[in-house]
Amino acid sequence: MTTERRWQGSTGSGSVPEQVTRYRGELHDVTDARLDTERFLDDVARVRPASQPEHWDDILLVVNELAANAVQYAPGPFEVRLRTTFDGVHVVVHDTSRTPPSPRPFRRDGGGGVGWYLVQSLGSQVSVVTGPDGKGVHVFLPW
Q1: Which element (helix H / strand E) includes 41?
Q2: What's the whole-model pTM score?
Q3: CA–CA separation, 3 vs 39, rounded Å?
Q4: End-to-end distance of the chain based on CA atoms, in angstroms?
């Protein structure tokens, strides 16, 4: 369940809001994060349509992967922050683990190993910032 949602800006004035949403860290929060991101992208598209249709799906996939990793590998709540940039969308997923993501070998038996590669491949810039309360994974994606 979403614990807090905050919007900044106004679509009525021509600017696109920043969306910050906090989740408890439960499995269903991965779906909620994806749905909340889709609503944000709806607002963005009203002001500035995506330059390529696949950019929409790429952003949703990145949020889904990072939210799933937060639930699987970090205990407790996580936050998804979305904001537009001059040429794209900046996604930040902050969780309570200070361990940066790392590539894992792909396992055909469903053991994962694809998500971090996808995030790095789809993002134009990807960085991880650690701090005393966890880490933030920053991904800049084209729009």
Answers
A1: helix 28-47
A2: 0.86
A3: 17
A4: 28
Characterise 96 by phi-psi region: left (phi > 0), alpha (psi -120 to 50), beta (else). Answer: alpha
From residue 34, alpha-carbon distances to 12, 57, 86, 98, 129 in Å are 24, 10, 23, 23, 22
Backbone φ, ψ for residue 23 (5° rounding): -125, 155
pLDDT at 72 over 60: yes
The residue with tokens 């930040």 is 92
Q: Which pLDDT score is estimated for 21?
A: 97
Q: Are 34 and 63 in contact (CB under 8 A)?
A: yes
Q: Supply φ then ψ for residue 98, to 5 degrees.
A: -95, 0
CA dist., res. 42 & res. 13, Å (int): 16
Q: What are the tens digits of pLDDT across the range 23-49?
A: 999 999 999 999 999 999 999 999 999
- pLDDT value at position 109? 73
Q: Which amino acid appears at position 46 of this protein?
A: R
Give me 124's structure tokens. 């134009």
Nearest to 59 by CA among 21, 29, 92: 92
